[in-house]
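Worked example 2:
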Amino acid sequence: MPKFLVIAAIICIAMVILGINRGFDVSDEGLYVLLAHPLQENQGGIFNYDLFFKLFHQITGIHFGIVGLRILRLFIYCLGALALAVFYRNLKGEKRLSLEVYLISLLGLMAGYGFLPASLSYNHLSVVLAAGCLALLSTGTPKLTQNLSLGLLLGILVYVKVTTALLLGLISLGLMLYEKRLNWKVLFALLIPFILLEGVFYLTLSENAIIRLSDGLSIQTGREDYHWWTLVKHTGVGAFWSLLLFVISFLSFRLIKKKFFQALLIISAFHLTFFITHITDEWNHFFLLLGVVVWAWFFAKSDFSRFSAKEKVWILLLLVLPFVLHFGSNVYWLRIGIHYLVFWIIAWLILAEKARLKSFKWVNIGISFSALLLVFNGLWWHSFEQNELWKNTEKWEYLPGKTIHLSSHQVSTLQKLKTQIGEEKELLAAYRNSGIPFLLGKTLPQSPGYWDKEQLKGFFPKGYSKDVLFSPIDSLPQNFTQEPILITDFR
């Protein structure tokens, strides 16, 4: 096994651990931490995995704060890498797990630190749950316990991201039908865990996913960024540019003999595609587009007559899985797709081993270097909606016994807000700044995050008369009578 994989994995983990108590993003990360807050309401929520945190707190009294959620993310990434190593072992029919595959999988998962904050979220949970589903689906002779386990993972996925659960559930049924092992007993085993979870949550917390989704459908569909066509476009645009670059690269590898002209055409197409799709400050989609070129190289160099029909099905699934997992997101695929890159990496491993491509070691080196760069850039240097992590040196206690290091400007702002705002346990924050109430030891009324005016009007049709933290991304509804507390810069 190459030593550089071990070194890269150790350095990536070290970078995560060293920054685990530094920095905080009040927008997306504010939503993540409030979803883990045992006292936070989540009426009509799309993401309902907070029910697990509430039930866990009810049983144990443990509340996962910022540091706890960051540790939890790293831990489930380690579990996800293990699931992918099991999946690879099942496909190869081997008896032992490969440490090399495990480390490559872990590095692929850790590339997700390149975009969005470090705390555990639905993006990370959906990737790891999908990895677990692959491990169970690839088992040669599944037993009742494995079908129940698959049903449990898909059931949990309903609470994490319902669109992904539905699509991955249909894919799972399709694979079982293809392998002629789908019957009413299997269907029953797949459904039982979700039914039990819904019952447990209703009996203990008086709510569950079905109740929340039915209540919140009208509120969320009122948001322009959650219209059906918009969600299709967010995934479809990424698929279009990926397919275009793939076709150009594939034809170049197949039809052009001289490597210089191959490289010239591919680099030109890559350069053009990268800058056309570079619509935000982040550049992590560079690695996704590079991955498309790697796919084209594998397809051009591989002899698919050597692959069994089953292997072709798995390779196709790993190719499309990043688009499946993304569907339902209101963020463009090329921005957030870095979280799903690991499934392409596993497919490349299968292709390289089958085609006996000796040059694949350079792909491994590229994966290691890319993961190191993405973790350093996304976590330390260009932290999502934050200053560099090393600038966060001031300790702030946001809940009794729970602290985080922030910038001096952030601490100063929080101290002023603490004297300005009363002792109310709840504080409404609009828009995209739900992390500020959290840092003040408060929760938000009804929902853990408000992103636009339509969402706010949906939850408060009769208005709101108490204090509102206001970030002027959008205007407040007219019937919000209280003078808002303006927040313009919290970095």
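Strands lie at 394-399, 402-406, 428-430, 468-470, 485-486. The two ends are 43 Å apart (CA to CA).
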